[in-house]
Write a structure and sequence with these properties.
Keywords: Carbohydrate metabolism, Hydrolase, Magnesium, Metal-binding. With 226 residues, the protein is α/β, with parallel strands linked by helices. The chain has two domains: 7-19 and 91-225, HAD superfamily/HAD-like (Rossmann fold, 3-Layer(aba) Sandwich); 20-86, Putative phosphatase, domain 2 (DNA polymerase, domain 1). The chain is built from nine helices and eight strands. It has helices at 20-31, 41-47, 51-62, 72-86, 97-106, 119-128, 151-160, 175-183, 217-225; strands at 7-10, 17-18, 92-93, 110-114, 137-139, 168-172, 188-190, 207-208. The strands form two sheets. A six-stranded parallel beta sheet has the order 5-4-1-6-7-8, sandwiched between helices. It has a two-stranded antiparallel ribbon with strand order 2-3. The longest helix is centred in the middle third of the chain and has 15 residues, at 72-86. The structure holds 2-phosphoglycolic acid (PGA) and magnesium ion (MG). Magnesium ion binds next to loops. Residues 11, 13-15, 172-174, 194-195 line the site of magnesium ion.
Length: 226
């Protein structure tokens, strides 16, 4: 391990944790005030990615009822109240994740989370799932002035974790993650079990892993040497 430990940066929704059941439930609770028909899992890939505010706006647009900006806040409040009250609900870490985090920390890697989910939702979710102690930093979509796909979101997360952006790997499920990593000059790994709205082979990640068992110190070392 070099002097400064490399940082492995993880996306949250669809990468670390399968949050779809609770996102869909809280979103449907939110849009029900406008009598809109519920959305399904198959819609989520088109709705998620830029945080709760964007998800609500997109759900209204999907149902043919576009929202004015000023109507969004009470709906966002409703979403947050429902999501917080149920947390962690049915959201669970993906298979093999917990072992992988332990293995990587033992090998000396520094771990961080860079999510477009609001920080005030991401932190308690990660805590309630018992994962928080693994991470040197957890940054949400509203933690800095920029968010994914802006590369500054990833580099600021790495700096907050005490790491070096020149020595990092990003692990994500969607275009925002892979694009932000590429623009930051950071190698990326894509997972296929998340919420990408395009085929993941088209995202241009450096590697794909199908299970967290494949996320080994060796694989990360290979990517860091590139
Ligand atoms: O909640 C979202 O919209 C996106 O969250 P993610 O960046 O962790 O995938
Ligand atoms: Mg994601």
């Amino acid at each position: 391990m070099p002097l400064k430990a490399p940082t492995i940066v993880f996306d949250l929704d669809g990468t670390l944790v399968d949050t779809a059941p609770d996102l869909v439930a809280s979103l449907n609770h939110t849009i029900a005030v406008a009598d809109l028909p519920p959305v399904g899992y198959e819609d989520l890939t088109h709705l998620v990615g830029q945080g709760a505010r964007a998800m609500i706006a997109r759900a209204f647009a999907l149902r043919g009822a576009p929202l004015a900006d000023e109507d969004l806040q009470p709906l966002l409040d409703r979403f947050i109240a429902h999501y917080m009250a149920g947390m962690p609900g049915d959201s669970r870490p993906y298979p093999g994740l917990v072992d992988a985090l332990g293995r990587l920390r033992e090998a000396g890697f520094r771990l961080a989370v860079c999510t477009n989910k609001m920080e005030s939702l991401a932190l308690p979710l990660i805590e309630k799932l018992g994962l928080a102690h693994h991470f040197s930093a957890i940054a949400g979509g509203d933690t800095f002035t920029v968010r994914k796909p802006d590369p500054g979101h990833i580099t600021a997360t790495i700096q907050r974790a005490g790491g070096d952006p020149r020595l990092a790997v990003m692990v994500g499920d969607s275009v925002n993650d892979i694009l932000a990593a590429r623009n930051a000059g950071i190698p990326s790994i894509v997972v296929p079990f998340g919420y990408s709205d395009v085929p993941i082979a088209e995202l241009g990640a450096d590697r794909q892993i199908d299970h967290f068992d494949e996320l080994t110190p060796d694989l990360l070392a290979q990517l860091l040497r590139k």
